[in-house]
Amino acid sequence: MAVDAQAGQLPRADLRVLVCEKLADAGVEFLRQSVTVDDGTAWTKDELADKIGDYDGIVVRSATKVTAELIERGTRLKVIGRAGTGVDNVDVGAATRRGIVVCNAPESNSLSAAEHTIALILAQARNVAQAHGRLVEGAWERSKFGGIEVTGKTLGVVGLGRIGRLVAERAKGLRMNVVAYDPFIAEARYKELGIERCETLDDLYVQSDFVTLHMPATPETRGMINAEAIAKMKPGARVINVARGDLLDAQALADAVVSGHLAGAAVDVFPEEPATESPLFGVPGIVVTPHLGASTVEAQDRAGVDVAGQVVAALTGGVVTTAVNIPAVSAEGMEAMRPFIPLARQLGQLQCALAGGQVSPLEVIIEGALADHGTRLLTSAALVGSLCGHTAEPPNLVNAPHLAEERGIKVMETTTRQERDYTNRVTLRTGDVSISGTTIGTTSRTRLVSAFDQDIEIELAPHIGIFRYLDVPGMIGRVGSILGAAGVNIASMAVSRSRAEGLAVMAVTVDSPVSKDVADQIKAIDGFENVWFVELSLE
Q: Torsions phi, psi of 412, nearest 5?
């Protein structure tokens, strides 16, 4: 868990978090160190809807449905925390449109879920559940429940994410042959894991003695294990599902076991939970468990503490590393990028002003060591600046890409590890309008280093003016005279000129806002092409 919160600080009474479902005591205590926590575990759906508007954050597990309607009522909501891996019970799209961070605890139950998968594989191989049931009923049927060894059998892993990899590693420890299908995993990763890559699902089905599912529930994956898929599986194979209930067609799976095409199945998850009815129930050869994948003491403790840390970070300006609706950045990457987030936002504000509000297409160029961490987070920050004051919904790192897409703003992203004058440099370009910036000093002060492809260095400040004008004597003095007559004090000034075009760029920072009348006086000077005064947010 990566948390950026100050240890030992007093809880903020102005920040309220609602815990909607049972959370590990350690997680609740972590929250209480920083925010006010209320217990909503006994609330009805209607009570939650009535009171959600009083909270800055909520924490749920899997039972509470955070719908678009509930999110709309949560007028103060800034973060939704899911104490577990999936966020199927949260309307992430609605939260994103509202600028609400949705975060989870993706690593908390991985080990427990992987171990439960292995447990179900072994239970299937040795008919553990069936033999137990008959024995406690008084029947000693040793010959009926003979099983198979897993050593030398082939395990087909569908999805090589965190849990899928853990399952594969443990299966190899049992001397199973492991094959996998995951089109989003590079070939080199398969080789590192010592796993055979299947080009298609069909390739996996025809050779696997056990097929285990570790995929998210998406429009593409829902119902993927249907009658057609099952028919392609090796006769006598077994299906294991500890991922999502709607990945498979329960009736088709039950029919395949009853017909003998499949030797068995083990299922821990169901489309609707709690589940008290299913075609899988009561079928000999099928083992079912009530969503026990994450039900270990260790997993529950980790989930509670992990999601609490993320919620606190989201509310106090810390690093949220598990957000599902903002670009994922490692703790190391966030540390490197943190000073450049306000820079990108300020450049976005400035770029929007210089381009007259027409920022599409927007090119974001990252140069230097920052390129190792991608562009998405800084692009989002730049969009926040570009959209600031232009949307009904205040833009933030969560909803800015969505707001930009709604407005047809096209974004291009470019990175280069090569350094040019500065260790790191962020450039925004729209048509012939371009500006670049970097950070300097131990306090990471934001600095403009280029405008209109001309080098010009000046520290960014709340009140900044940019001028393009004909490079002739007396221009600087005339600007100073007009500002001085208006009672506006110049804090700093920088000038750059292009001999090729005969145009110069001037940047000034001033101590107070500049009125439109004063700006028009400067623009009226013969030779001035453009004049912009911009109010920047440096927070």
A: -120, 140
pLDDT confidence band for 402 (50 / 70 / 90)? confident
Active-site pick, 273, 298, 405, 406: 273
Count the neighbouring beta carbons within 10 Å of the beta carbon of residue 13. Answer: 8
C-alpha distances in angstroms, 57 versus 102, 425, 473? 10, 35, 59
- The CATH number assigned to the domain holding 130 equals 3.40.50.720
From the candidates 214, 244, 373, 402, give the one annotated as an active-site residue: 244
- Residue 428's SS3 state is strand
Annotated catalytic residue: which of 82, 170, 197, 291? 291
Q: Does some domain include residue 201?
A: yes
User: What is the C-alpha to C-alpha distance for residues 218 and 182, in angstroms, rounded to an integer?
Assistant: 15
291 belongs to the catalytic site: yes
Q: Is 463 a catalytic residue?
A: no
What residues contact residue 376 under an 8 Å CB cut-off, 6+ apart?
A: 327, 413
Say how many residues make up the chain.
539
Residue 495 CB: number of other CB atoms within 10 A?
17
Does the annotation mark 132 as catalytic? no
Q: Are residues 130 and 266 in the same domain?
A: yes
Residue 323 lies in a domain: no
Model-level pTM? Answer: 0.59
Percent of the chain with pLDDT over 70: 95
Q: Which amino acid is at 376?
A: R
Please say if the pLDDT value at position 207 is more than 90.
yes
Q: Give the range of the structural domain holding residue 528, as residue numbers without chain letter.
A: 461-539
Q: Summarize pLDDT for 349-398 with one digit per residue, the tens.
A: 999 999 988 888 999 999 998 888 877 889 999 999 998 877 756 687 77
User: What confidence score (pLDDT) does residue 2 get?
Assistant: 37
